[in-house]
């Protein structure tokens, strides 16, 4: 359920930004939703891969 809510959020923001700040829509096109254990995260950034790696690392450390 959480993953779908975050995917819906991306779509909602995409529609908003298309008319407001179209140059930022590419970030939404490349957005990442990650789910790991009991955690879900939405990443909208120029550095999605870096953030995803760090988020997964922190979650893994918390679960140890």
Short description:
The chain has three helices and two strands, in the order ααββα. With 64 residues, it is an alpha+beta fold.
Report mean pLDDT, rounded to a whole number: 92
Q: What is the count of DSSP helices, taking H or I runs of 4+ residues?
A: 3
User: Proportion of β residues?
Assistant: 15-25%
Low-confidence stretches: none
> How many strands in all?
2
Supply the helix-strand structural class: alpha+beta
Overall, the morphology is: elongated
Report helical residue fraction: 55-70%
Distance between the termini: 25 Å
Radius of gyration: 13 Å
Main β-sheet description: 2 strands, antiparallel
Going across the biggest sheet, name each strand in turn. 1-2
SSE arrangement, N to C: HHEEH
Describe this structure in words.
The protein is an alpha+beta fold and 64 residues long. It has helices spanning 2-20, 25-29, 48-62; strands spanning 32-36, 39-43. The chain is 61% helix and 16% strand. The chain is elongated and about 45 Å long. It has a two-stranded antiparallel ribbon. It is built from three helices and two strands; from the N terminus they run H-H-E-E-H.
Q: Can you lay out the helices and strands and say which pair or pack?
A:
Blueprint (H helix, E strand, L loop, with lengths): L1 H19 L4 H5 L2 E5 L2 E5 L4 H15 L2
Antiparallel strand pairs: 1-2
List keywords for this structure.
elongated, two-stranded antiparallel sheet, single chain, 2 strands, 64 residues, 16% strand, alpha+beta
């Amino acid at each position: 359920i959480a993953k779908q809510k975050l995917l819906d959020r991306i779509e909602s923001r995409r529609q908003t930004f298309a008319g407001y700040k179209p140059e930022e829509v590419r970030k939404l096109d490349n957005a990442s939703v990650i789910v790991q254990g009991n955690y879900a995260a939405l990443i909208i950034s120029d550095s999605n891969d870096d953030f995803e790696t760090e988020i997964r690392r922190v979650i893994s450390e918390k679960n140890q």
